[in-house]
Amino acid sequence: MKVLLVNGSPHEAGCTAAALAEVERALHEENIQTERFFIGNKPVADCIGCGKCRETGRCVFDDVVNRLCEEAASCDGFIFGSPVYYAHPSARLLAVMDRAFYSGGKNFMFKPAAAVLSARRAGQPASMDVINKHFSICSMPIVSSTYWNHVFGNTPAEVAQDKEGLMTMYNLGKNMAWLLRCIALGKENGVNAPHNEKVKTNFAR
Ligand SMILES: Cc1cc2nc3c(=O)[nH]c(=O)nc-3n(C[C@H](O)[C@H](O)[C@H](O)COP(=O)(O)O)c2cc1C
Questions:
Q1: Angle, CA of 24, 30 and 31, to the nearest 5°
Q2: Tens digit of pLDDT for each residue in 115-138?
Q3: Which residues, judged by CB distance below 6 Å to any ligand atom, belong to the binding site of ligand 1?
């Protein structure tokens, strides 16, 4: 079983990475494989709504988004980490998630996920809500922890002092491992993901 740890910060070894590392530690203790996925610090285009992905299954912009979707196909669970910017997740991560879920949603569907946030001071709950919405319209079980999945800090050294935040990350990793095992056991015993109905009314029809 493998969990993809997506780092939506422009800093590969920053505060978000420190939070993800603590989730990773718990997952490794439970013998769950992990892979880190850094979205980088180059500009990322937002979705242009061209609909081409409906024909090809890939985004027309062949960048980090298509790589993420390819990685996602072989993963069983996801942690999406982001710094808080003006009380929302990084715009770059949101652009990546919008495009990845629109073009490659099938690679994420029915797989458990969680958001983790890092902030100097405030804005994590609103940011977590934004990321979680991607999971909740993609039939993905949202993994919880023992408190909000947040760390405080402006530097990794500050995050290291946030003992409760790090404990929450650790417990999140343990909860993810538990849920992954439950799902795997379910599959072994014939409990498979449901077939979801799809009706689009666009409110007017
Ligand atoms: C443009 C920008 C906006 C920010 N807005 C907030 C904010 O609203 N609330 C907050 O507590 N910290 C804010 N911060 C601080 C970062 O969220 C914080 O330093 C975070 O831990 C950085 O994570 P990283 O090292 O993984 O990039 C902001 C930082 C930047 C660069």
A1: 85
A2: 999 999 999 999 999 999 999 999
A3: 9, 11, 14-16, 83-87, 118-123, 153-154
